[in-house]
Amino acid sequence: MKQSEIKELSIADLNEKLGALQKNYTDLKMAHAITPLENPLQLRSLRRTVARIATELTKRELQ
């Protein structure tokens, strides 16, 4: 998810997306611990997307 797409979402959408992505990240991390993922770079991109959304939420709270 690109930063421009994140900026267009509302706060409620961001919170919903953040929860879903965090759950997905946790599930992938657990699956990777048991058997290696075919594409381990998925973990990095998911983690960075979660960080982008969390940053946008913090930015909007401070405004």
Structure summary:
83% of the residues lie in helices and 0% in strands. The two termini are 23 Å apart.
What is the helix/strand order? HHH
Q: What's the helical proportion of residues? A: over 70%
Mean pLDDT: 95
The number of E-state strands comes to: 0
Supply the number of helical segments: 3
Low-confidence segments: none
InterPro entries: Ribosomal_uL29, Ribosomal_uL29_CS, Ribosomal_uL29_sf
Organism: Polaribacter marinaquae
Family: Belongs to the universal ribosomal protein uL29 family.
Keywords: Ribonucleoprotein, Ribosomal protein
How would you describe this protein?
By secondary structure, this protein is mostly helical. 83% of the residues lie in helices and 0% in strands. The chain starts with a helix and ends with a helix. This is Large ribosomal subunit protein uL29.
